[in-house]
Write a structure and sequence with these properties.
It is a single chain. By secondary structure, this protein is α/β, with parallel strands linked by helices. It folds into two domains: about 190 residues, Vaccinia Virus protein VP39 (Rossmann fold, 3-Layer(aba) Sandwich); about 100 residues, Orthogonal Bundle (Adenine-specific Methyltransferase, domain 2), CATH 1.10.1020. Helices cover about 40% and strands about 15% of the residues. A hairpin with a 5-residue loop joins β6 and β7. It is globular. It starts with a helix and ends in a 6-residue tail after the last strand. It binds S-adenosylmethionine (SAM). The site of S-adenosylmethionine has 23 residues, from β2 and α9.
Length: about 290
């Protein structure tokens, strides 16, 4: 977090891009979404040429979607522990046509949103749709308990400010075209990842973007995600013990800097802008030097 913590790491040779210049592929708005990192992902996967991309903390799954849609990996495995987010991915992959039809038909009045919030979904499609609606209309896209609806929204459009039915339906339809290349697991990435690392070895590329909740951490993962407790030291150790190529992103917190050093990984620093226009240093961590 402090400049001192990151001073030892060089700046990445790839500049941070304006997210508007990168295709938006995920229907979910994700706190901590990684669209800005896409130029790094493209560079990394071009060199790695993996047989599979593994994303153990999927969230909005921007990296998995980009990898398969841009032909950077033949297939992707995504893992997510939050059962509402998981329902969305299962519905999008298995029932994309239904979901996009519902998106086009939905009238996002406050009354309809409150109805959806209260109602207990009976099927995976209903639950997935509910997740999408709440994600697009709640403040900051936050699904964690206690999140509120966007009152004024962007441009004074309130609840509607992030509900773009045509765009969302089109994204769902594109995902449908790739659904035979995306495998989704609901569960704990910390438990599922070691099995995949053993199975795929060097043939896998692993994109790791875990929730991070360091004291005072600016991402404040605890407020953003329902599941935010990860054993970060165990995650670093796991990646150290296996051969897979990986790319991790983390806030540049002292604890993380220590782990990078302990395992002899490489890191570069990226100055990110958050919504308050402060620069937050973010680390991009790889086994070997990629971006210096
Ligand atoms: C930082 S976000 C990922 C954002 C994602 N990279 C994107 O572009 O949208 C972390 C995600 O990991 C999920 N998560 C938390 N603990 C997990 C676990 N043990 N296993 C799998 N997913 C987990 C959270 O629910 C959240 O969706």
């Amino acid at each position: 977090m402090s400049d001192g913590a990151t001073a030892a790491f060089p700046q990445s040779r790839i500049p941070v891009v304006n997210v508007a210049s990168v295709p938006q592929r995920s229907p979910l708005r994700y706190p901590g979404g990684k669209t800005w990192l896409i130029p790094h992902i493209r560079d990394w996967l071009h060199r790695t040429e993996p047989e599979i991309l593994i994303e153990p903390f999927a969230g909005g799954a921007v990296v998995s979607l980009t990898a398969v849609m841009e032909g950077l990996a033949p297939c992707a495995v995504m893992i997510e522990k939050d059962s509402d987010v998981a329902a969305f991915w299962r519905a999008a992959i298995e029932h994309g046509a239904t979901l996009s039809e519902w998106v086009r038909r939905f009238d996002p009045t406050r009354e309809n949103l409150e109805k959806i919030e209260r109602r207990n979904p009976r099927t995976v499609e209903e639950r997935g749709f509910r997740t999408l609606v709440l994600n697009r209309t709640r403040r900051g896209g936050i699904l964690a308990p206690g999140a509120s609806f966007s009152r004024h929204g962007e441009n004074g459009k309130g609840l509607l400010s992030r509900w773009y039915p045509e765009t969302l339906a089109a994204r769902l339809e594109t995902i449908g075209k790739y659904n035979d290349r995306i495998i989704f697991h609901e569960g704990d990435g910390m438990k599922i990842l070691p099995e995949l690392l053993r199975e795929w070895g060097r043939r896998a590329a692993v994109f790791v973007d875990p929730p991070y909740t360091a004291q005072g951490g600016k991402k404040a993962g605890r407020r953003l995600y329902r599941h935010s407790e990860i054993d970060h030291a165990a995650l670093f150790k796991m990646l150290h013990e296996h051969e897979a190529n990986f790319l991790m992103t983390y806030d540049a917190a002292p604890e993380i800097v220590r782990l990078v050093r302990r395992y002899g990984f490489d890191a570069v620093c990226l100055a990110m802008k958050n919504t308050h226009h402060n620069r937050i240093p973010e680390l991009v961590i790889t086994r070997e030097s990629q971006f210096a």
